């Protein structure tokens, strides 16, 4: 009660008369003294009544007091949340598959050719969505027909993707729109690729039938790098602004840190990185590279599998003789999904000031990757 009246006094001190300020300060001082002296309950009750009487007499009432309190609590909560996001933990979602199988991006599976698939019930779909981040999409054809066209993706409120499929049923010249609602992911390449393969269909068959699994959502640790520099092998999140060769300059990317400032980075035919000529492998670089370099050297590189790091004829590292010299204030970063990752092999070193933090904790969906164990 004392703190509340003190807060009101400080809020209105500039509009209260000197007499009011003195009366309130005297009442506050008396109850503070009673608290310090640990007086009995009746004594405290008496001081509280005196403070309440002074506050009722001198404090100016606020209009819509309950609304003011609620708004104040709401604004404080926003400030605290923004402070946590800016200085400690920032939510981040994995939109692409460049870090698979360590961290997964958006995945889609076409189920039209699966004779054993049956659309799950509402409760099962709700569970799959809330726990595993999986959306199911299906349109069953009421009669024979064909797909005429597929519209471009429309981003609704920046959270939901909407796409329209236009079909023409047999015996009709009218194009019927079918609206496809998908999750809040910016990367729709896999979904679009599936839709472009749509053609004719028969009655009772699915026009479309696929499941979409959202990318991993994680917290980025923005605190640690205020006290030390990033270390080799850590998974870092960075801004793309100012990086030549990246088309989207307002995005956040996530890759694994490979080369530090002042080093020379190359890739051998054995799919192992060389740092100043020294070969990285799973035994000498634990724990960050034990999975990446734990592949079978007799197997071919595969998408979404640990396959080391490969040379790419389209990149600046197309042969073992080529190398990237890392400037003192920059890093070299590679994706774990080496056969499907646009990284420093293609657009060069990353400015150190672009780094915002490192991967910390996968909080959704609930899969084997849930938690802070990702390396």
Pick out its properties:
375 residues; seven-stranded antiparallel beta sheet; 7 helices; alpha+beta; five-stranded antiparallel beta sheet; single chain
What does this structure look like?
This protein is an alpha+beta fold and 375 residues long. The protein contains 7 helices and 19 strands. 25% of the residues lie in helices and 26% in strands. Helix 2 (18-36) runs antiparallel to helix 3. The model has no long low-confidence stretch (mean pLDDT 89).
Secondary-structure blueprint:
Layout lengths: L1 H11 L5 H19 L4 H18 L6 H23 L1 E5 L13 E4 L11 H11 L1 E7 L4 E6 L3 E3 L3 E10 L5 E8 L6 H7 L4 E2 L4 E8 L3 E5 L13 E5 L12 E8 L4 E4 L5 E3 L2 E2 L44 E2 L4 E5 L9 H4 L2 E2 L3 E10 L11
Antiparallel strand pairs: 1-10, 2-9, 3-9, 4-6, 4-8, 5-6, 6-7, 10-19, 11-12, 11-19, 12-17, 13-14, 13-16, 14-15, 17-18
């Amino acid at each position: 009660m004392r703190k509340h009246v003190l807060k009101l006094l400080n809020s209105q001190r500039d509009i209260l008369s000197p007499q009011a300020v003195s009366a309130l300060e005297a009442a506050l001082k008396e109850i503070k003294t009673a608290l310090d002296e640990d007086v009995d309950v009746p004594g405290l009750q008496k001081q509280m009544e005196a403070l309440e009487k002074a506050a009722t007499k001198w404090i100016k009432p606020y209009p819509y007091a309950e609304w003011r309190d609620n708004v104040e609590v709401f604004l404080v909560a926003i400030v605290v949340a923004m402070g946590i996001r800016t200085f400690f933990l920032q939510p981040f979602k994995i939109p692409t598959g460049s870090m698979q199988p360590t961290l997964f991006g958006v995945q889609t599976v076409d189920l039209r050719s699966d004779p054993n698939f049956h659309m799950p019930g509402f409760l099962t779909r709700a569970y799959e969505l809330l726990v595993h981040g999986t959306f199911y999409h299906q349109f069953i054809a009421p009669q024979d027909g064909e797909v005429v066209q597929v519209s471009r993706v429309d981003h609704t409120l920046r959270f939901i993707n909407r796409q329209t499929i236009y079909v023409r049923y047999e015996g009709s010249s009218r194009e019927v729109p079918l609206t496809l609602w998908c999750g809040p992911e910016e990367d729709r390449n896999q979904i679009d690729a599936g839709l472009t393969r749509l053609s004719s269909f028969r009655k009772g068959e699915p026009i479309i039938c696929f499941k979409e699994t959202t990318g991993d959502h994680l917290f980025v640790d923005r605190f640690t790098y205020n006290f030390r520099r990033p270390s080799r092998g850590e998974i870092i999140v960075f801004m793309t602004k100012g990086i030549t060769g990246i088309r989207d300059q307002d995005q956040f990317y996530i890759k694994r840190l490979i080369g530090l400032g002042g080093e020379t980075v190359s890739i051998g035919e054995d799919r192992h990185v060389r740092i100043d000529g020294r070969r990285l492998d799973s035994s000498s670089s634990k724990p960050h590279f034990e999975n990446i370099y734990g592949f079978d050297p007799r197997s071919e590189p595969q998408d979404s599998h640990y396959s080391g790091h490969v040379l790419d004829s389209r990149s600046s590292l197309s042969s073992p003789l080529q190398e990237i010299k890392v400037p003192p204030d920059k890093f070299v970063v590679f994706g774990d999904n080496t056969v499907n990752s646009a990284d420093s092999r293609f657009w060069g070193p990353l400015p150190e000031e672009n780094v915002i933090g490192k991967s910390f904790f996968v909080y959704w969906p609930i899969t084997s990757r849930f938690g802070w164990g990702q390396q």
